[in-house]
Structures are given as structure tokens and as C-alpha cells.
Amino acid sequence: MKGKTVKLMGGAALAMFALVATSQVQVTEKKSLTLDGARKVIAAAKEYARQNNAPGGVIAVVDEGGNLMALERLDGTFAAGANISIGKARTAVLFKRPTKAFEDIIRNGRTPMIALPDTFFTPLQGGIPITVDGQIVGGVGVSGAASAQQDEELAIAGANALMNLGAATAKPATYFDKNRVSGAFAKGDVLLDGTGRNYMVHASRREKPGMAEVHLEDADIVYVLEGTATLVTGGTVAEPKTVAPGEIRGSSIQGGETRQLVKGDVIVVPSGTPHWFQQVTAPFLYYVVKVR
């Protein structure tokens, strides 16, 4: 009987340890935006507005659930800006991406998105998620500045005020020797992926023209190493299709600006900007740093 009791107790202990271990796996540390943090976001956006002579604007900050935490209306801003800025902030946090992404999607032809309820969806440039240590803790929206671009600039300045609040940890440098780099260019490969960081490095190679592309979340910084190419930027993507979250492809670009890229050139393509390698001389080799 005693031996059975020990076995039963041992089984119960194992079950308890398993339950505790499972609970630890299922529970993660979660960061939350405080009222003080929301005020810092607004203060940073206001300071940016002051430094850049922004004529007005309403700055709204919401928590991760889209609930309003703080709002401030600068002098000279129209009254409706308050509701619009709240909508932008709410959209940015609930959909976890800048609201400009949705404005671009609709502009490129996906008009059914405007049917989403405006209680939580405001597809206008000027809303930015607030991220701390890789976690989205809230959103900031700005409306009523000089332009939609300046709305977004104020929002980014506010969101950036909290980005560096986490403990700083030194990270080792990443090195690729010439053989690794040459091998990557031989086939067109990723040198550094985006795991745990907001950037990637591609050793890109093109033998022929490609499809028109729009990266809604990533900016491309291109440095040409070899060959020439005709690159079209801006304009409207023909026959757009969403091939992955935040990624649109099309057959070509209508309109836009055409440039001839040669060795040594650098071009920066902002997120949401259509671009298309219309012609290339093979091999066309170029570094791409993708920044999110």
C-alpha cells in the first residue's frame, strides 16, 4: 500500500509540474501604455510640430484596444480633427500597421475596404502604432496639420518617443566574408533576415524585368553594384493583386517616374510606393536594405 501511495503522489506531482509548465508557456509578459506614456507621445509630437512650424493638428493616443487615453488639439485646428485623429490612432493599433497602408491599398483599386465600419476604420494617412520592445502597446493619430504627410510625421515623432524606453542591450556585429557575399549575389539571396530586427539585407540579382511591386510596410534602400536597369517609381499598379500581407504585385505601372540606374547609384523607395524594374541588363546586381 505504501508503494502505491508513493506512486500516486509521484504521478500527482508530475501532473502538477506539467500544469505549471504549460501555464508558463501560455502566459507571456505583456507591456501596457500608461497615461504618462501617452502624454510623452503627445509632447514629442507637439515638439516636432513646433520645430517644423506645423500650423495645427489634433494628436490622439489610444491603448492597445483602441480606447482613447489622451488627446490634445493645437491652436488653429478644425474641430472635426479630433474624431479623425482618434480614428487614425484606433485603426493603426487594431490593424497593427500605419494607416497610410490602407489609403494606398484603396488608391490602388481595392475600394471595397471603404465599406468597413468607420467606428474602427479610418484609412487616412496619419496613424502610427506605438511599439515598445517589439510589442504594440497603443496607437497615435494626427489630423489637421499642413498635409497628410505632416500628419504622419507628427505621429511618427510621437510614437518614436517611446521606442527607446526599453533596456538597451548591446548586440554583436554581423559579418559576412567576401565568399559568402559573392555566393549570395550568384543566386540572389538574403544576407540578413528580419528576425528580431526592423531591417533586412538582400544580395539581389536580376536577369530580366520583374513585376510591379508595392511593399506597404517596408522601405527599400537600393545600391547598384553591377549592370544597368530602368526603374519606374510611383504611378499606379496595373492589375494589382495582394500576394502576401502588406505585399502587392502587378503586371506594370501606369505613369510614375522613370530612371536609368547604373553602378554606384543609390535610390530609396519609401513604403507604399509602387516600383518596377521595367528593363535590366543581365546580370543586374544590387544590395537592398529593407527597413520596416
Topology, please?
Layout: H1 2-26, H2 35-51, E1 58-63, E2 68-73, H3 81-95, H4 100-107, E3 127-132, E4 135-143, H5 148-163, H6 178-187, E5 189-192, E6 199-206, E7 212-215, E8 219-226, E9 229-233, E10 236-238, E11 241-244, E12 247-250, E13 252-254, E14 257-261, E15 266-269, E16 275-280, E17 284-291
Antiparallel strand pairs: 1-2, 1-4, 3-4, 5-6, 6-17, 7-12, 8-15, 8-17, 9-14, 9-16, 10-13, 11-12
Helix pairs in contact: 2-5
The largest β sheet comes out as: 5 strands, antiparallel
Strand count: 17
Shape: globular
CATH topology of the largest domain: Beta-Lactamase
Strand content: 25-35%
CATH C-level category of the largest domain: Alpha Beta
Strand order of the largest sheet: 5-6-17-8-15
- Structural class call reads alpha+beta
In total, how many domains does the architecture comprise? 2
CATH superfamily of the largest domain: Haem-degrading domain
Query: Whole-number average pLDDT?
Result: 85
Written description of the protein model:
- The chain is α+β, with helices and mostly antiparallel strands and 292 residues long.
- It folds into two domains: 35-163, Haem-degrading domain (Beta-Lactamase); 178-291, Jelly Rolls (Sandwich), CATH 2.60.120.10.
- The chain contains six helices and 17 strands.
- Strands 5-6-17-8-15 form a five-stranded antiparallel sheet, covered by helices on one side. Strands 2-1-4-3 form a four-stranded antiparallel sheet.
- A hairpin with a 4-residue loop joins strand 1 (58-63) and strand 2 (68-73).
